[in-house]
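Revision sheet: structure tokens.
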Amino acid sequence: MTNKQSGQRLSGAASTGNADLMRSINKGIVLDLVRQRTSISRAEISKVTGLSRSTCSLIVDELTRVGLLVETGAGHSSGGRKPVMLSINYDAGDAVGVKLMTDRIVGAIVDLRGDIVALEEHTASYADGPGPYLAALSEIVGGLINKRAAEHRPGGLFGIGVGVSGLVDPASGTALETSVLHWHNVEVKGALEGFQLPVLVENDVNAFALGEVWFGHGRGMDNVLCVTIGAGVGLGVIVDGNIYRGAHRGAGEFGHVRVSADPGAPVDSAGIQGSVEAFASDDSILAYYRKTGGGETRVTSVSDIAAAARRGDKNAAEAIRRAARHLGIGVAALINLFDPEAILLSGEGIGDADVWMPSLQEAIGESTAYGLDRLCPIKIVPSDESMWVRGVATLVVQEVFRLNI
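Predicted:
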């Protein structure tokens, strides 16, 4: 074979590959447009996307054939033939979402609307080590799949999403570092490959943020930050509708950002002095309250401190104010850096927002440039485990609409 002949073959293969890639991209564009518009005609798809009518028809026919689109009747016409309207077939299939915690695993079957159709919880302790814990993970996933089959859910399963705290490598499905589970380089994905479904592993706060953009308080927005408070302080960053992970998968370690240079400032779980987490985590707030002579012996949680503050306990009020101000300084830095459409605040500590929100907003206003804080609403998002697993399942749902699954 001559070099010229070889080059022609390689060029042809590349051309075919590029054409296949473009078809896949165009299908994803069409599918996501239908999702956003709820109901739309072929002609309008062509107009909005710039794709030719013949290309749109071919794509729509294929998506209808595989069950992701359905015809929903005739639309309005100003004259002539009424257009056939298209919508997403939300019964095309489901996703599994699983969140890993220190003492248990919560899993759910979630449909393409983001609705939870089955929810289960299993006891699992990180102290038993990765092997037994991952065996419990496999067990809960298998149980959910069997439950779905027993209920004769329409369509199939598109994949499994797993949310774990800390530093995660989504490409390999590995938990690189997690201080919550005390794991180092644990391959999570491998424990679920026996189900012969795509497995997506992601930092849990990133997944939570994605779920809120698709189905929750960030719906309709493309650039959102989700800050979670509780045992630690986390951050999920959504840029242009996608999770932003950073060059080394470490983006979002907001809790370890320094907000005080005071030499007497507390130290966080990563050994960083004066960080957001060092002031605003549950343990830090409790420690400060006790250190300053908190008078109520029955106080064992931040919620107890908030309740004491409502009753007029000055030490409790100061413990909350101190945490909220340092958290607010950090949030202001996020607004200055990212200029998001909104900041979502969630996590276990969100139930006492009425106590700490005034101090938080005051600190944000004092530390934000150009009045950007006035353009960025702070939304309180009530947190429960079902919302976390919905977020993890959204990893799979997003890939379905991109046609990567």
